[in-house]
Amino acid sequence: MANILVVDDELGIRDLLFEILNDEGHNVELAENAAEARAARQRARPDLVLLDIWMPDTDGVTLLKEWSTAGLLSMPVIMMSGHATIDTAVDATRIGAFAFLEKPITLQKLLKAVEQGLARESARRAAAGVVPTPVGGHQAAAITTTGDSLLMASLASVPVPDVGPQSTQSFDLDRPLRDARDGFEKAYFEFHLAMENGSMTRVAEKTGLERTHLYRKLKQLGVDLSRGRRSAV
């Protein structure tokens, strides 16, 4: 899980990016202008920033240059715009932007850019000697030549993973068709939620349903939306 700052003056864009990135298991903070972005950058130290170019107070390129000059560009910044020219994108890249996304932003391009940006940040921290917290907050056991007792103790501290629902299910068919169908659909969606770590975005893609319809369907079936949610990394 990463800390991501989204800076955009459009409420609809902020809400959409929050929903998608939150579904992916990230902590997302929102800012609607450069002033809020400065405060958030200082307070939260994000792992990645999604920064809109055209904003009312200070445009994104100016803010990017400000961070770069002050030595605050310690995280990947992905620029976003629906009106920027090629020259603007090139200038942002020269200043230090990691990538540029043109609005309307497609889901695939967004997730790919975020994944690549976080991968670069992880590699940078590793090169700097910053050891990330292991999955689930458990420290990695050092296997040394001091004997098997250390190895056994470390293995005992590792939690047993929940394998989640299985792909093969059994259903009680001796009941009304509607009830049997609802039971199947609930198991179907619970399975895909577990397989996609609770990401509604990926489940919508997998099942071919529009996100709003998917939310209504899951609520109607009584599916626990917190189940399968990706744990903190």
Could you please describe the fold and organization of this structure?
With 233 residues, this protein is an alpha/beta fold. Helices cover 48% and strands 10% of the residues. The protein has a five-stranded parallel β-sheet, with helices on both faces. Strand 1 (3-7), helix 1 and strand 2 (27-31) form a beta-alpha-beta unit. The longest helix has 21 residues, at 107-127. It starts with a strand and ends in a 12-residue tail after the last helix. The model is unreliable at 133-164 (pLDDT under 50).
State the secondary-structure class: alpha/beta
Low-confidence stretches: 133-164
Question: What topology, given as strand order, has the largest sheet?
Answer: 2-1-3-4-5
Instruction: Please state the overall shape, judged from the principal axes of the Cα atoms.
Output: elongated
Termini separation: 5 Å
What's the average pLDDT? Answer: 79
